[in-house]
Structure formats: C-alpha cells, structure tokens
Specification:
The chain has 464 residues and is an alpha+beta fold. Among the domains are: 175 residues, no CATH class; 89 residues, no CATH class. It contains 17 helices and 14 strands. The longest helix is centred in the C-terminal third of the chain and has 29 residues. The protein is globular.
Length: 464
Amino acid sequence: MSLELAFTDKQITPWGGMALMKNMLDHIGWDQAMLAAQLPQPGSNRGYAPEQLVGQFMLSIWCGANRFEHLEATRFDPVIGQVFGYERMANYKAFTRLIDKFDQASIADVFPSLYQHCFAQVGLQTLTLDLDSTVLTRYGQQQGAKCGYNPSKRGRASHHPLMAFVADSRMLANVWLRPGNSASANNAISFLQSSMANLGAKRVGLVRADSGFCEQAFLTHLEQSKLPYTVAMRLTRPLQHQLVNAQWWPLLNEQTEQQARSASPVLPTPTGIELCEISYQADSWDAPRRIIGVRQSIRARPDAKGKTLSLFANDEAISGWRYAAIVTDLQLPAVQVWRSYRGRADCENRIKELKYDFALGTLARASFWATEAAMHFVMLAFNLMSLFRAAMQHQINKSGTTHTLASLRQQLFAQAGFITHEGRKTILKLATAMQRREWLSGLWDASKSFDKPVSVKRIFDPPK
C-alpha cells in the first residue's frame, strides 16, 4: 500500500488519559494546596503563575520527560493545556528560573505543607517509615557534587541524598540533597525529625533503616523518642564471632489450613533459613541491645541476601551461609522482627522507579538548592501518582498488581484525544478501542468521586 502525506489543523493530544489525573487533583484540592504553599513569585506581572509552572513540570514528568528541556513536549500540546486549565503554556526556562529562586529557607517554608496535604489523603494514622540513601552520578559542575561512594561510576562526582519512604502508601515523606562524600547517617536525626513533620497529623509506628544508620546517636534518639525500630547492622569482627557462637534454630515452612486438615498432612519442612537472638553491645554503644541474626543456606537458596562472614571464609560449614543482623527494640518474636524488616527492601524498587520513570537522577541545576527543590517536586509528583494508583487500584487492575508509571503511561495515559463543544458542554473525546471504553468510563467516574481518605494496606501493626 502506497501512502501519501497530508496535515490537519485539528488539535489532538497523545495524552488524553491525563485528564484522569486532573480529575483526581481537583478531587483532593491540589490547586488550593499549591496556592497556600506560597511559592516564589515571578518578578514581572507578565510572568507565569508558579502553580502553573509546577503543574506543567509534574505533567511533563508523568508524560515521560527526563530532562528540563523535555518540558517542551507538553508546551506544544494545546489540548492538554486546556484539560489542565492553562491559557498558555510556559517555556521550560520559566520553570528553571522558578527553582533557581529556592534557597534553604524557602524550601523549608514551601514543601512541608505540600507533603502534609498528600498524607492527609491517606486513611491510616500510623505509618511505617523507611530511611535510605542513593547515589546520583553527576557529569557537570553542580554544587555539592563530590567524589564518594559510587558503585556504578567509580571516581565520578555524585550527590548522595537521604530519602524517607512511607511503606504503607508507597509514598515519600522527605528528601535531602547531600554532597557525594556524605556518610549515610550524616544529619540522619535532623532528617528524621523533618520527615515526621512532613507527615502532619500521622504518627510513625516503626522506623526501618539500613546499616548506614546503625550508629549510637541515631539509635539513642529513636529510643528516647519512643520510636520502635529495626535497623540492619554491619557485620563487624566482634559481631561475626557472636553470630558464629549463637544458638540457631531453623525456620520451617508453615502448614496451610488445607494441609493440616488433610488425611495425610504435609509436615513442615526446613526453608534453608535459620534465626538466632543475642544481646550484643558494640564498641561505640553505651548499652547492649537486642540483635536478631538471620542466615540463609547458599545451597538451598542461591539468591539469598546477606553476606558471608569474612573471618570464617575457610570454614566450609560457616561459609555456606549468608548472614544478616538486625538491631531492634521490638519485643516481638524473632521471626516477626525479621519479616517486618524484610519489607524494607521495597525501597529499592521505589528508588529504581524514581530514577527510571521520574527522572530523579537527571534533573540537576548548578545551584545546590535549586537541585533539591527540583527533587522535592519530583517526590510530590511521585506521591500524587501513588495516590492515583491507590485510589484507582480496583478499577485499573482487579488482580491487585501495582503498576509503575511506565505501565500506566503506556496502558492508560497514552490515549489520543481532542476537545469538542456541544452547546455549553466541553467534551474530551478519546480514540479508545471499543472493548476498553467501558473500563475507561468507570475510571473516569471513579477519578472524580473516590472515597477520601484513600484506603491503603497497613504494613506494620504496633503492639498494644
């Protein structure tokens, strides 16, 4: 078949499905929250409203932008501009000028209320807070980019931000940009306090963190603040000796109710996982603490997490296991402590999604505080998308699978459409396959009227 090329003046958007996000934002009052946040104002009365600039930025991120210059993709889309109520779309440089106005004080003034508004939409009152850090490689001359731990680009300058995740709602409570040569626990106490303030009226039922946070000052602060915690430990030499000499017991597969009632019940079997419990005082600690040890057989579980004990590398019986240790003040059985901590690994999935789908590592400015401001807006874009996924979960996928932004972008948001007028009605018409129209109509109705606050699954139930 031979094709000829022709053009049309009809205004069409490839992102008609983004109208669902607009419905959700209106339903939770996001525009009012942005107005109340007191963003830096333009220097000219002809300038764009900062609320629009932030909205355009988030919209572009949701549509796949991973550079500031990519904001132009939505700038030249008049249909999506009408959907979001923008009379004229701004150049990407207007947004970069906005974030260049941020300093440490204005970041502290603007963002807490926006985080609090996000978490006010979540039904749970007690949340699980996960602390982590990541490495963002830099290639320019950005402020704070220093050479430090960088496993993917050794010797390359980087930033090393701290991040606080709320596991229950799969949202972020905070991010602090730091130089690349910062240790994980650097400013950890102040960061934790700031993150808890961003939660508003919510309270923290459990703090989970990796071994970089396992320091005397941080653990003492958690205990004095009466914040339950599970924190991974470094396998130092004294701790390795304690683990080797501990009394281990195997973790067995639990019987299902059907197996227990059957005529020939299936007996519990070893899982290749063993646990121990010890009281241990590190050299830098002022008192002993409860330690839960976990080891997994490399033969039975080749992909097991953990580390082999370097002091016993030549001992065949010991080197066949991978070990981990968790310090905690929880008074729960050891297996429950381990299972409650194990869920913290989901942080890595959130970090990957932030880097690959939300352009976390590529939106950097020369100014340190401008870069941090851009990161906060990325986190808020992530939170709003998480709220959308939670509110629309049953309509999007009844199997309960959680979609990444990349999946939603391809399956839902990429809907060609145009705007028409019938009488006094403004109508968005989408070019959607016939078999998907009923599903999309259900999503449209749900996005405007879902129950608030949004129901999410509780990760950890604090003991009474």
